[in-house]
Amino acid sequence: MTGKIIGAVVAGVILGFFILPGWVLDYTDMIIDIGLMLLLFFVGIDIGINRSVFGRIRNMGLRIVLIPVMIIGGSILGAGLAGLILGMPLNEAGAVGAGLGWYTLSSILMANYSNELSTLAFLANVVREMLAFIIIPIVAKKMGFFSAIGPAGATSMDTALPVIAKATDSETAIIAFISGAICTFSVPILVPLILNL
Amino acid sequence: MGIRLLMYLAVILLGTLIGARAKINKRLSGRLGSIQTACLLLLLLVMGIKIGMDKDVIDSFFSIGYSAIIISIFTVGFSILGVKLVSGYVTGGKS
User: Fold this and answer.
1) Of B5, B52, B76, the CB nearest to A131
2) Taking CB atoms and an 8 Å limit, are B80 and A16 in contact across chains?
3) Which residues fall within 8 angstroms of residue A71, CB to CB, at 6 or more apart?
4) What confidence tens digit (pLDDT) does each residue in B32-78 have?
5) Which residues contact A113 (CB under 8 A, 6 or more apart)?
6) A with B: how many residue pairs have Cβ under 8 Å apart?
7) Structural domain boundaries of chain B?
8) How far, in whole angstroms, is CA A92 from its chain's centroid?
9) pTM of the full predicted structure?
């Protein structure tokens, strides 16, 4: 599956950069939205077939919240360490990590602070999303289903959810959606907060 | 974003209701899996196209791509480790 994912993304980038005319860009968002809705519908069907997952998730209760908490903490800590290596101020690097893969919002939130940092936030979070698509199947196989939610961050609620659902099971897909929603709501709070530290 | 979240939730719930009520045999389930894979790859292809056509992303990749890659590798790596650390507790030791 990983090979197919890499192939699809790389083929898309090459097509977009070298071959396709500019007007195609007007339709990409619409196609992505339709494709995403269709995939989320399929995720729902899988969940409906495996109804027993609801009981297991109910048993986990509020402990599920620990997953997005660790994703948020890990992302900020990881970005901070990367910042140390790159010679960046800790608050700036941490704020880029707090984007959690939501590249449009994180770059907008930093635009007033610095244009350069805003571009870095955009690109780092685009790369995170692409990296997530590629490694989710590998992480699911080698480190367990729940760990596969980690790379996606906020995108485990939308674009990365079909990849997670395909690589794991219905139970993990539901938890990934909850985790993605919590991460999504925390981005507009955390990015300005860390930036102003 | 709130509206979008509700839309995603509504679509998933609709699928869940249909999946719970419809009698889906193994053959149909396998076919659904193939359709799902095809849709997923198409979605990733279009997302790649969107990135490839965005001149700002491509231009900035050549100037600050190294920093972006380092930051994303560390954020992803530490997120995975963080979740791994608590996954046993979340499942109550059943994973």
Assistant:
1) B76
2) no
3) A100, A149, A150, A153, A179, A183, B79, B82, B83
4) 778 888 888 888 899 889 888 888 778 877 878 899 999 999 999 99
5) A195
6) 286
7) 55-88
8) 20
9) 0.86
